[in-house]
C-alpha cells in the first residue's frame, strides 16, 4: 500500500455532504485511527502488572534454580515483577500444558526444557502440544550435562562398578529421576542400553525428593541435571560417577563422561529456556528476549549460572525456535530406539 492510499479521503469543499454527515465521517475516521493505535500503545506500555513464570518442577531442582536466578536478575534490571509458580507433575508436561492454554499476553511464561518440550511428546500419549505450533521460544537460558550420582557411602566407586553389579543381578539396582519422560530418564535408559544392563527406574516428582533418597541410600543411583546435584556433590554427600554429555562438565571437571567410562554413543544434555503461548505479540516477545539476553551477557550472571553447574548461552528467539524444532524431530527416533514408554 502506498503512503497516500493509507490517508483518509479528502472531500472537496463543494461536495454535497451535509454538516451532520461530515461530523459523523470525521468521528468514524478519528475512532478508527484511535482503535488502530490501541494495541501498539498497550504493548509499548507492557508490562503493567506482574508476570507469572511457571516452573514445571518443584522448588529446589535445576529448573527452579535457573528460573528464579534469571527472573530475579531481569527484575532487578527492569523493575518488572515476576511471580514464580511451581506446577510439577507428569515429567514437567503439566506446567507446559498450562501455558499452552494461557492467554497470549506475555503475562504468563514458562521455563521449559528439552525433556518436557521435545522428548515428552514422543513418550506420553496424553501430551498433545507441539512446541513450534503452540508456544513461542523467547530466550535460551542455559544448557547442562546430566550426571549419574550415588550416595557418598555407596559401594559404587565408578560406573564400571554399577555395570558389573547390574549384569550380575538385572533390575536389582534402583535409580531415581525427576520423573517419567524427562531427558534425564531417557539419558539413563540410553546408558543402560549402551552398557547392556537393566536398571529399575523410580520416578519422582522432581529432583529434590530423588536426591534425598539417593543420599539416604533408598535408591542406589540418581540421574539428574548438574545444577540439581552440584551442591550435594561439592558437599561430599553425593558421589558423581559420570556425566552423559560428549565432553566433561566445566563444573565437574574431574568426573569422566559415560563415553570415557567405556560406553560409546551416549551423548545427552539438556537445555532450559523461556517460552510464551503462541500468538503472543512479537513486540512483547522481543522485549522479553532483549532483557533476558542482556542479563545473560553479564559476567556476574554467567558466573552464577556456572556455579549452578550450567552454561549460559544467548540466542535470538528465531535461533532458539530452530533449535527446539530440530530437537523435537531428532528425539522421535531416539525415544523409539530406547523403548521407553509412559502411559
TrEMBL record:
Q: InterPro entries, from UniProt?
A: BUG, Bug_dom1, TAT_signal
**Gene3D superfamilies annotated for this entry?**
Bordetella uptake gene, domain 1, Periplasmic binding protein-like II
Give the highest taxon in the source lineage.
Answer: Bacteria
Tell me which family the UniProt entry assigns to this protein. Answer: Belongs to the UPF0065 (bug) family.
Q: What is this protein called?
A: Tripartite tricarboxylate transporter substrate binding protein
| Species lineage | Bacteria, Pseudomonadati, Pseudomonadota, Betaproteobacteria, Burkholderiales
Amino acid at each position: 500500500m502506498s503512503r497516500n492510499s493509507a490517508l483518509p479521503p479528502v472531500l472537496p469543499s463543494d461536495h454535497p455532504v451535509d454538516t451532520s454527515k461530515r461530523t459523523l465521517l470525521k468521528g468514524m475516521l478519528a475512532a478508527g485511527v484511535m482503535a488502530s493505535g490501541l494495541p501498539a500503545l498497550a504493548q509499548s506500555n507492557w508490562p503493567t502488572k506482574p508476570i507469572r513464570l511457571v516452573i514445571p518442577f518443584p522448588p529446589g531442582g535445576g529448573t527452579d534454580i535457573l528460573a528464579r536466578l534469571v527472573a530475579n536478575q531481569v527484575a532487578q534490571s527492569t523493575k518488572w515483577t515476576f511471580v514464580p509458580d511451581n506446577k510439577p507433575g507428569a515429567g514437567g508436561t503439566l506446567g507446559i500444558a498450562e501455558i499452552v492454554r494461557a492467554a497470549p499476553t506475555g503475562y504468563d511464561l514458562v521455563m521449559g526444557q528439552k525433556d518436557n518440550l521435545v522428548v515428552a511428546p514422543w513418550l506420553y500419549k496424553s501430551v498433545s502440544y507441539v512446541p513450534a505450533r503452540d508456544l513461542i521460544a523467547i530466550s535460551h537460558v542455559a544448557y547442562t550435562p546430566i550426571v549419574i550420582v550415588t550416595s557418598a557411602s555407596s559401594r559404587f566407586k565408578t560406573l564400571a562398578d554399577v555395570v558389573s553389579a547390574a549384569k550380575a543381578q538385572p533390575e536389582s539396582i534402583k535409580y531415581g529421576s525427576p520423573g517419567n519422560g524427562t531427558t534425564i530418564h531417557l539419558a539413563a535408559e540410553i546408558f543402560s542400553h549402551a552398557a547392556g544392563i537393566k536398571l529399575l527406574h523410580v520416578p519422582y516428582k522432581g529432583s529434590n525428593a530423588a536426591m534425598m533418597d539417593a543420599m539416604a541410600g533408598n535408591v542406589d543411583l540418581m540421574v539428574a541435571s548438574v545444577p540439581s546435584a552440584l551442591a550435594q556433590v561439592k558437599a561430599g554427600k553425593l558421589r558423581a560417577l559420570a556425566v552423559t554429555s560428549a565432553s566433561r562438565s566445566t563444573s565437574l571437571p574431574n568426573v569422566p563422561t559415560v563415553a570415557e567410562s567405556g560406553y560409546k554413543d551416549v551423548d545427552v544434555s539438556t537445555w532450559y529456556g523461556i517460552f510464551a503461548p503462541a500468538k503472543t505479540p512479537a513486540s512483547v516477545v522481543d522485549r522479553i528476549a532483549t532483557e533476558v539476553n542482556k542479563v545473560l551477557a553479564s559476567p556476574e550472571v554467567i558466573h552464577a549460572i556456572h556455579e549452578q553447574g550450567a552454561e549460559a548461552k544467548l540466542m535470538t528467539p528465531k535461533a532458539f525456535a530452530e533449535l527446539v524444532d530440530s530437537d523435537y524431530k531428532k528425539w522421535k527416533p531416539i525415544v523409539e530406539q530406547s523403548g521407553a514408554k509412559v502411559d
